[in-house]
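[job 0412] stage=fold_complex status=start
inputs:
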Amino acid sequence: MPELPEVETMRRGILGIQGSRISAVERAPCRLKPILVRPRIDVLRRRVVGLRVLDVERIGKRVMLRLESGDGIVFEPRMTGLVLVADPPDEEHLRFRLALADGPIRQLWYWDRRGLGSVQLLSPLQLAELFSSGRIGPDALALSAEELRDRFSTSRREIKVALLDQRAIAGIGNLYASEILHVAAVHPGKLCHRITRQEWQTIHAAMIAVLNDAIRYEGSTLGDGTYRNALNRPGEYQKHHRVYDRAHQRCLTCCTAEVKRIVQGQRSTFYCPRCQPGRRSSRHK
DNA sequence: CCCCAGTCCTGCGGGC
DNA sequence: TGCCCGCAGGACTGGG
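[job 0412] stage=fold_complex status=done
writing structure:
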């Protein structure tokens, strides 16, 4: 499930389209239920064909091609979306194609197995609205320890649940929330307002370290093998996971306790009860 | 403010 | 061997 490191890897993988001119956009022929593309493909085509891509940006878990018109083509991969410049994993889940008239990359695909993602063209006004509406918080990699604490320290939510709130902080998903809290040695069920100043420092440092590490290894490709970088190669960070999806296996940090799986906000959380103490387990199931 | 359940969607794996 | 069901969860919505 593409989170900040995976989406950042996608962004880096398509940087070569900077400066290229868009020559065509189309929905891929696909038997499956069509993904969300906005506006309608013919309207979208009129607004982008012939324009150059000025920049490739990341907005939380989205990748955006900034065009010379100021519009942005925003890819939101959600669970299984991929932005590719070569060899998709298969043909039947291709959803959208963008062709470039010049430059090193002549074709960009959006591929999505489950189809929960989207491709949207947003005007400068719509982009401004996306940020001002409060739907998307500051990027996890651009937030200082003080800002992190300021945003969360009065909340009564559990820290793991709070980290997933994209309005509070953008980019962290289910996988990295568990990994970050493990490195920080903080119990995922700890309530934000009970977290000390020192612990916020530790959480912040762990967040930056884990996310940057994961970017260095080009993200995590889980057992289902879905995630791929822009060249359709898997990430390597799954080899460095300490707790995620390792329930009942020995904790790699203390080499003593077994990793536990609990459910918070209807999502799996993994942690080591020895390395991350501090909550009665009876509060969870 | 925050929580919870439901929705979208496909593929996979467990159970029978 | 095959079918059904539950599960995976990011973002969003509606009700409490």
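[job 0412] summary: The first strand of chain A starts at residue 22 and ends at 27.
[job 0412] exit 0
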